[in-house]
Amino acid sequence: MSDVQQTFSTASVASLDSPQAYIEETPIWRDGTDVDSSILTGMQWRIWWLACAGKFFEGMVVFMTGIALPLIGREFKLTAVEHGLVSSAILFGILIGATALGGLADRFGRRAMFIVEMALFIAFLLVLSIAPNLSITLIALFGVGLALGCDYPTAHMVISENIPARARGRMVLGAFSFQAVGALSGTGLAFLTLTWFPDPEAWRWMYLTAVPPALLILAGRFFVPESSNWLIVRGRVAEAETALLRLLNRHPRYPSEITLKAEAAGSPHAHKVKWSRFLTDRKLRKETIFASVPWFLQDLGTYGIGIFTPVILASSIGNKREHAQALSDLVYNDLLAAKGAALIDVLLIVGIVFAVMFTDRIGRVRLQVIGFIGCAVGLAIAASGNHAGPGWDVPLIFAGFMLFNFMTNMGPNAQTYLIAGEVFPVAYRGTGAGLAASFAKIGAVLTAFLFPILLKDLGTDVLLAGLVATSLLGAVVTWVYRIETRGAGLG
């Protein structure tokens, strides 16, 4: 064998007395050279894939709503206000679920809520598929959002607390990228459903397509260990050691045993979060502002443009059939919008790929600032399309929305999610990240509810100009309250 044969017998971490120290440990070569990349176990990859699913389903059902909305509107004869309620119901559920359920991960554990959220997601999708009226539809959409809201802090924590810091940025954002994959898949599935079942109730089948894969994900989540970082904070040392052994199960076996220092453990009552600290503690207050306000500002644009891209495109592209009364006209317009939205949504995936590549090189703060500025430029280009001459209007609208989608996923849409799960201390991480996500979703709910009303009353120019301003404000707030979390330990 070569003199540089790889071995696990010598640790590259000096003191192994905490869960994070064991997780950070990498093998070294026989000549003493450190391995400069993380080697993940099968269980770490399993956790990552199961967390990816939550972001996939979020992108799928939220962006699918833009295609389903006209059909729901026809079936229940919705007014403009009721359209706003339908489009914002999932987002309002996310707003509540991120704090109300996501915060429970600090009390009952990351794994427990990881399971509960998927069970709730499936249950409410089934209710949605048979909803007999608008009230039940709104309750079901809210319930779906409630489950997805829980996933915001929980999915981040099950990844970030179980993998090495050097891989955390790209792994968390890699999972987050499945939101973009879900958005594109949701648009594609909606298109296929409309093609195969061009009837008023096609929207029910759209949401029902998520149930079979969700059942598989639910089953898989029963077979992952609890976060050892959370267990040690709760003072459950023996359980933390057992969970770490499951997490770090390798062939050949290393480590063969794990011993954590009991004196480093926290209190069994560490889950008692003091909400007043988010206001009175200067450091925690800055972390909360940094995690919450830019996320709120980017959600105004991301969900407004994301959900209503089909509506804006259908009203901007000249092939739309005006005054659609017949079902065939409605389906035609919906298919037309779905095609354009799918093309634009591809840039969401391209953007997140760039985020994964550069977040650990350039840093979270710089990418977020660059992304906010790029979003403003993209929206300004799209707005200019309404005033361009013949032949330039449609290309400018498409170019602007595509630049926006690329920049938001490379920058604020990805980085705000990543930062919120990194910036808070362990005992407050679930609650803090959930609080940030909930505050952000206030922006998403406001946008989703008001967009159909304001689009009708003010037009696209005014709305896009407002979103340009909020994007620029997001860049300013990010820079003023910046806390760079790249490479920071989470143990």
Automatic annotation (TrEMBL):
Regions crossing the membrane: 47-72, 84-105, 112-130, 136-159, 171-197, 203-224, 295-317, 337-358, 365-384, 396-420, 432-455, 461-481
Topology in membrane: Multi-pass membrane protein
Signal sequence interval, chain numbering: none
Record's keyword annotation contains Oxidoreductase: no
Recorded GO CC terms: membrane
Major location category of this protein: membrane
Keywords, ordered alphabetically: Membrane, Transmembrane, Transmembrane helix, Transport
UniProt record similarity statement: Belongs to the major facilitator superfamily. Sugar transporter (TC 2.A.1.1) family.
Protein name according to UniProt: Putative metabolite transport protein CsbC
Organism: Roseibium aggregatum
Gene that encodes the chain: csbC
